[in-house]
Every structure is written in structure tokens, then in C-alpha cells.
Design goal:
The complex is a heterotrimer. By secondary structure, chain A is an alpha+beta fold. Helix content of chain A is 21%, strand content 16%. Chain A has a 4-stranded mixed beta sheet. Chain C has a domain at 25-58. Chain C has 3 helices and no strands. Classes of the chains: A alpha+beta, B mainly alpha, C mainly alpha.
Chain lengths: 238, 450, 58
């Protein structure tokens, strides 16, 4: 069984926010008005944050950034608190979010220490013309609605490592009667990354790029001390 | 056999408000009902448009609604504390207050539950909690505990009300027919037989123990909704006991307020002697000091540990965005009430009420200041995004509606049923001509009525 | 299946939580119903049968 993982090399990241935009168009993330964004309601499953410089830090001359998709923890705090299993960890380690079942209690958004979860305060809307160009992909069926499917108001959404791409890749592989090839399934942000700073693959496979990179001395995970065991792994700067 | 009723010397004054019927209360009822309706309208609008009409945002995903939820559940602890815990410990001064206190429980609980539904993004999917309920989620613990608490409170309250309903049925003959019919049905054919009283006492004693356990569970579980996350300021073992103490504290203070209003409006001075307030004063002094103890235990531990993410929240409260609410809360629930209780409140109902009101305002602020500051500085995001929160009019209107709704139910109740238990405040439950009694007693020794 | 797995399945399976809530409430309702009935019946049969029963016990 695969264990999907992403490695982000912060040394190569140029903070172009290409990942955020690619994610937005891949996953049909709703666009909010500037006033709403002011309130802190913008939705970017993959957000790029400028890091606050420590006071008196010489390195603070240099701007630093952190790009943050979902960590897809092995021990996810959000999954533990969900009352209806609208969010759950799949066989391949991806933390799913089922819009069809979510009751909007926002317990998971509060429990997630990484702030990767977003809530649909209003029904999603797009600017004139943009709604003609939404990604038609979705993962659905049997009380399930995931991936880029249009979310109703009042439910929580989050990065799914572009789970619809996994479904597509698997369908293709099954049709051809073979395993998924390495590199056949990558999320949109990895595909688009300008600095080639993102890598994606299977942690179970010792030869995969993510397995190799996760062994590097520079490798670290966000809030390792919280015991959430993220599968999104960072490579430290410099 | 004719129904037997114990002789209560205050029967006339206690029954007077019930006899009188609606009267001038109508204005109060209309005002409260209008606020409630306005709140329902605001909620309907929120349901149609989405939770965006509130001030909640990222990362402050929970706001005034959850604060209200915790506050109302806390308020509900008044009744159970007075009637169950004091029953178990055998504090007999509770007797005249039990029903007034328990009515607070009964009428605040539904509004606490309503807060959760109001706060949900998809209230139409509330049944998913049963269809797909996962017991790992603390929300399910809440769901179980609060529903059991609500059910048990209704039964506990109703059982102790039955003899008085029967009394109303027999004494209040000139009330409107629907009202009389209601008494007849609700009295369940109570005859006042001494065995009935005996069994009732036994059941109430047994239930008091159960209620004590439930009440402790309920508020601990409410706090665990916060405590089970790994967010700074919430993830502490102290949060359970602290919430529980706060709940009983604000609940008891609410009893003081309600009691004073009832005493004044319904002329119950004789039935509710000032000694009751003095007993409550002693309890409240204990709780005030207990609250200080909890505060010191919590914040001194945090400060010495000095974990960076904990300190972000700590300073948010002490000097940051929430310093006004935090220090205001400290003054309102601790300094002023303690001063009042020690130097002013003995034999003075106005001072007791003042302190009670301050404590309840302060405790609402306390709930707010426990919940919101943590969210503005969540664990990782405090380095990345700093939250702020300003409730909108929708949230305030719905909050006002919740309190009005509770007041309305309470006001209506006092006109339908005696608010002071008649059968529990008599000197003797013995049937005069029937000497044969004592039976083996199982649950707790009743104070001798022989 | 080990005990740990069983416990995990118990808390993690959707629906079991709902079942727990419903059973707690149902059991409580039934108990309260019979308690109430028992209290009210104190005035009817107790005076006859109950007294005899007690005498027999004594």
C-alpha cells in the first residue's frame, strides 16, 4: 500500500505562489471578496506565508517564506475530533474530507494546529466568466463528495493532495493492468512549482524521491513535537 | 380516597402567583417573545446566507455561540447543584430554593443545546451525528452527556413537582378549564398517600446521586471539547475542574438573582427568608476563592513553563487584545464580589443581587476569554497568521434571543406552577390520623419528620 | 482481533457513537418511566399487597 508524501525544499522555493494559484484552479477553491479576505476568510488550500523575523535576527534582512499544504499527518488531530467521520485517513495515508457528510461544526478547523482547514462561510462564488472554467473533476458516489467538487456553504474543505488525480491515475493503471508508475500521480502544486522545489511520491518505496529526500539531514516536519507525524516534509533552508 | 396534602403555612402566598394568572405579565411576555422571534429571524437569515454573517473567521472558528453554549450549560448547573448535590449532602436550607433553581437548569439547557445547532454550518445535517456518530469525537461525549442531563433534569424536576401539581388540581378550582385539565393530566392521579411520598423521597434521593455524577460529567465533557485539542491554553488537565467550578459558581449566582426577583415580584418574603441568602453567600464566598485558586494554578503553571506557544496566548490575555476583558472579568468575578460578600452582603439582598449580576457577566466574559484568545494564536499559525474577532449584530441578537427565551419560559412557568415546593417545605409529611410508618430507609437519611 | 483494535474500531466506526447516544437515552427513558410509575402506584396496591409483603419479610 502506498503512503503518499510531499517534500518541499525551502532552499529552492522562490515564493512565487504558483502552487497556491495552481491549487486554486485545480480544486475550484472559492474566491472571496476583498472585504471577506480582510476578515481572514480567504481560501487557499496551499497558502504561502511570509515568516515573521525574530527581533535582532541578522538573517531578518532576508525575507523568508513558508508554503504550506495539508500535512497529511499519520496521527491527525482533525480526524480524532470529527463527530461524523467526514474527515478520515484513507488506506494510503491521505486525509480525506467528505463534503457530503460534513456538518460544519468546525471542530477539525479548531483542532488542526497547522490551520490547513477552511470553512465555507458563504456558498462559493466566482467572478463572471470564471465559473465557466471550473475543473469538472470530482470524487463522488455512495454518500461521498470529495476533491474539486463544488462545495456547498457551511462545510469544511482542505488540501487532499489532489485526490482526484490519484483516482484518475489509478483508473488508467487498472485499465492497462499495471501498478501506478512513479510520477504518474502528482498534485497540481508539485507539477507547477516554478523552482522545482516540490517532490511527490510514495514513502513506502525506498527508491522514491520522497523517501530519499526524507533521509536528508535538512529534512524536518512542522511541529514535530506535537506528535502528529506529518507526511509533508520540509527541507531546511541553506 | 380523597387526596391528602401536607399543611404548608405559606400555601396561600405561594399559590397566589399561580392563581392570579397572566395579568400584567402579558407585556413582559410580549417583549421577551419579540426578542426571541427577532433572534429566530436572524438565525433563519444566517441559515440561508451562511455563517459568513457572523464575525467568525480563520483562525477564530468558534465565537460567541460557543461561548453561549458553555455559559448556558454552566448556568444549568445551578439547579442540579442546589437540588441534587445539596440533597446528597443533606443541607436542608436548600428546600425552598430547589424548584426555582432547578427551573433555571431546565430552561437554560435547551438554549445551550440550541447554541450548538446555531453554530453549525449545516444544521440540516444534524442527524448525521446519530447516523455516523463516532465515539472518538468529544462532541459525541457532549451529545450523550447533555441529552442524558436534559432528560434526567426533566424527570427529576417533574417528579418533585407532582405532589404540588396535585395540590393545584385540588385547590385551584376557579382557574380556566384548560389549566385545570393540565393539572389533572400532569398530576398522574397523585393521591398523597404516605407510601407515595415515601417512594418519591427514595427515588429523589437516588436520582440526586445520579444527577451529581451527571452534572460533573457534563461540564467536564464540555471543557474537553477544548481540552482534547493540542491548542495552547486549552490543552490542560485543569480545564475540566476549572469549567466545572465556574459553572457551579455562575449557576449559584444566578439562583440569587432569580430568587430575589421572585421574592420581590410575587411577595414571597415569608416563604423565602433572608437566611437563605446568607447561606448562599457562604457558598459563593467559597466559590469565589476557589475560582482564584484555579486562576493562579492555571496561569502560574503556564508562566513558569514559558512554552512559546502558550506564552503567546498568555500575553494575549494579560496585555494583548483581550486585556480589557481579562482584567474586567477578574474584577467582576473576584475582587468586587468578594468585597461585597464579606463587607456588605450579609442580610442585604440588593448587595447579593449586585454581586450575582456581576459574577454572571464576569463568568460570560471568562468563557469568552478562555475560548477566543487561544484561537487568535493557534499553535503554528501564531507565527504566520494572527487572528482577531469582532462579533456582528447577528451574533448579539441571537444571544439576546437565547436569554429572552430562557426568561420567557421561566416567567410562564411561574404562572403555571408554584415556584416554591409546597410539599418539601412543610414541617411534617405525616398523615395525621395514620401513625403507622417508618420503613427501612435506603438512600441517605432524611431529616427526621417524626 | 486484539483488544486495542477492537477498542479503536469501537470509537472510530461511524454509527456506533450514534448508537451509544440512542441506547443511553432509551435506557434512561425506560428506567425513568418505570420509576415514575412505581412512585405513583405507591398510593394504590402498596397499601394492600405491599404491607402484607413487608409483614412477610419481617
Amino acid at each position: 500500500m502506498a503512503r503518499w508524501s510531499m517534500v518541499i525544499d525551502l532552499d529552492k522555493c522562490v515564493a512565487c505562489q504558483g502552487c497556491s494559484i495552481a491549487c486554486r484552479f485545480e480544486n475550484n477553491t472559492p474566491i472571496v471578496s476583498p472585504e471577506e479576505a480582510e476578515l481572514g476568510r480567504e481560501m487557499l488550500w496551499n497558502e504561502v506565508f511570509p515568516l515573521r523575523a525574530e527581533e535582532g535576527d541578522i538573517a531578518s534582512e532576508q525575507s523568508r517564506f513558508l508554503t504550506r499544504p495539508c500535512m497529511h499527518c499519520e496521527n491527525p488531530p482533525c480526524v480524532k475530533v470529527c463527530p461524523v467521520q467526514a474527515t478520515f485517513i484513507g488506506d494510503e495515508g491521505i486525509v480525506h474530507q467528505n463534503y457530503a457528510r460534513c456538518i460544519g461544526c468546525r471542530f477539525c478547523t479548531v483542532a488542526c494546529p497547522y490551520g490547513v482547514r477552511y470553512f465555507n462561510w458563504y456558498a462559493p462564488s466566482w467572478e463572471e466568466g470564471l465559473e465557466q472554467h471550473l475543473n469538472p473533476d470530482r470524487v463522488m458516489g455512495n454518500g461521498d463528495l470529495e476533491g474539486p467538487a463544488i462545495r456547498p456553504r457551511g462545510v469544511v474543505e482542505k488540501c487532499t493532495y489532489c485526490i482526484h488525480r490519484l483516482h484518475k491515475a489509478r483508473a488508467r493503471a487498472e485499465a492497462e493492468g499495471r501498478e501506478i508508475r512513479s510520477g504518474e500521480y502528482v498534485p497540481a502544486c508539485v507539477q507547477t512549482c516554478t523552482g522545482k522545489a516540490r517532490f511527490f511520491g510514495d514513502l513506502e518505496d525506498p527508491n522514491s524521491i520522497v523517501s530519499q529526500l526524507s533521509q536528508e539531514r535538512r529534512a524536518f516536519r512542522l511541529l514535530e513535537e506535537a506528535g502528529t507525524r506529518p507526511k509533508t516534509i520540509y527541507l531546511e533552508e541553506g | 380516597m380523597a387526596t391528602w396534602h401536607p399543611k404548608n403555612e405559606h400555601e396561600q402566598i405561594i399559590l397566589a402567583p399561580v392563581k392570579q394568572g397572566v395579568g400584567r405579565d402579558r407585556i413582559l411576555w410580549i417583549v421577551l417573545a419579540s426578542i426571541l422571534l427577532a433572534g429566530i429571524a436572524a438565525w433563519a437569515r444566517q441559515f440561508v446566507l451562511g455563517l459568513g454573517v457572523t464575525g467568525m473567521n480563520r483562525p477564530v472558528y468558534w465565537g460567541v455561540y460557543i461561548t453561549n453554549f458553555v455559559f448556558f450549560i454552566g448556568l444549568a448547573h445551578s439547579g442540579t447543584f442546589i437540588s441534587a448535590i445539596l440533597r446528597v449532602t443533606g443541607a436542608d436550607f436548600r428546600k425552598p430554593l430547589t424548584r426555582a433553581a432547578e427551573a433555571i437548569t431546565l430552561f437554560s439547557l435547551p438554549f445551550g443545546v440550541a447554541c450548538i445547532v446555531i453554530d453549525m454550518g449545516r444544521p440540516d445535517r444534524v442527524l448525521n451525528m446519530i447516523r455516523y456518530g463516532r465515539f472518538q469525537s468529544p462532541l459525541l461525549w457532549d451529545f450523550t452527556a447533555v441529552s442524558l442531563y436534559l432528560l434526567s433534569s426533566i424527570v427529576f424536576f417533574y417528579l418533585s413537582l407532582i405532589p404540588d401539581i396535585a395540590l393545584c388540581r385540588d385547590r385551584l378550582t376557579d382557574v380556566p378549564p384548560w389549566k385545570h385539565r393540565m393539572y389533572e393530566i400532569l398530576a398522574l392521579g397523585w393521591t398523597g398517600d404516605s407510601h407515595q411520598y415515601h417512594r418519591l423521597e427514595r427515588v429523589l434521593d437516588a436520582m440526586a446521586i445520579l444527577m451529581t455524577m451527571i452534572v460533573i460529567t457534563v461540564h467536564t465533557v464540555v471543557s474537553w471539547v477544548f481540552g482534547m485539542t493540542i491548542q495552547p491554553g486549552w490543552h490542560t488537565a485543569l480545564i475540566g475542574p476549572f469549567f466545572l467550578l465556574g459553572a457551579i459558581f455562575s449557576g449559584t449566582a444566578a439562583v440569587v438573582i432569580v430568587l430575589a426577583i421572585l421574592r420581590k415580584l410575587y411577595h414571597l418574603e415569608d416563604a423565602l427568608p433572608i437566611g437563605l441568602f446568607n447561606s448562599l453567600r457562604k457558598l459563593l464566598i467559597t466559590f469565589t476563592l476557589g475560582w482564584l485558586y484555579m486562576m493562579i494554578a492555571e496561569f502560574l503553571t503556564t508562566y513558569y513553563g514559558s512554552l512559546p506557544e502558550e506564552m503567546e496566548v498568555f500575553w494575549q490575555k494579560f496585555t494583548g487584545d483581550f486585556y480589557l476583558i481579562f482584567w474586567g472579568m477578574t474584577i467582576l468575578v473576584f475582587f468586587i464580589p468578594l468585597f461585597i460578600f464579606i463587607f456588605r452582603a450579609k442580610d442585604s439582598i440588593p448587595w447579593m443581587v449586585t454581586a450575582g449580576v456581576l459574577i454572571n457577566i464576569g463568568m460570560w466574559m471568562e468563557r469568552y476569554v478562555v475560548i477566543i484568545p487561544t484561537e487568535t494564536r493557534p499553535r503554528l499559525l501564531y507565527e504566520l497568521v494572527q487572528g482577531s474577532y469582532r462579533p456582528t449584530w447577528t451574533e448579539w441578537l441571537i444571544t439576546a434571543a437565547l436569554f429572552s427565551g430562557m426568561g420567557l419560559l421561566y416567567a410562564i412557568f411561574t404562572r403555571l406552577f408554584p415556584i416554591i415546593p409546597l410539599w418539601e417545605t412543610v414541617d411534617s409529611l405525616e398523615h395525621e390520623p395514620e401513625p403507622e410508618r417508618p420503613e427501612p430507609r435506603r438512600f441517605g437519611e432524611r431529616t427526621a419528620q417524626v | 482481533m486484539s483488544f486495542g483494535e477492537l477498542a479503536h474500531a469501537f470509537v472510530n466506526t461511524p454509527g456506533i457513537g450514534g448508537l451509544m447516544v440512542m441506547s443511553v437515552i432509551t435506557i434512561a427513558s425506560v428506567v425513568y418511566f418505570f420509576l415514575t410509575r412505581w412512585v405513583i402506584q405507591g398510593g394504590k396496591e402498596e397499601s394492600e399487597n405491599g404491607r402484607q409483603r413487608r409483614r412477610r419479610i419481617q
